[in-house]
């Protein structure tokens, strides 16, 4: 099942924040979460949504999915902490 189809454990809203805050806040939130939890991040900063957060998730070995909502102008990012 795709991460976006599962109920997230937590939702982090970083809309309006620019690099590096979305990544920093994502890391802090994930530190508090248990393994197997899913974090949904609302992000409108392209550098964070398309580069830094996906790269961080990959380095950590976390499952990652990105959904760009063109009509709303932001991304929904899903990270499953392993």
TrEMBL record:
SUPFAM superfamilies per the UniProt record, alphabetical: SirA-like (SSF64307)
UPF0033 domain span: 12-36
InterPro entries: TusA-like, TusA-like_sf
PANTHER family given in the database record: SULFUR CARRIER PROTEIN YEDF-RELATED
Family: Belongs to the sulfur carrier protein TusA family.
Protein name in the entry: UPF0033 domain-containing protein
């Amino acid at each position: 099942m795709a991460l976006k189809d599962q109920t997230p454990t937590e939702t982090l809203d970083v809309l309006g924040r620019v690099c590096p805050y979305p990544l920093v806040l994502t890391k802090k939130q994930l530190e508090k979460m248990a393994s197997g939890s899913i974090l949904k991040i609302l992000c409108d900063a392209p550098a964070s949504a398309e580069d830094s957060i996906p790269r961080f998730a990959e380095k950590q070995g976390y499952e990652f999915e990105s959904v760009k909502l063109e009509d709303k102008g932001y991304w929904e990012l899903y990270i499953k902490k392993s």
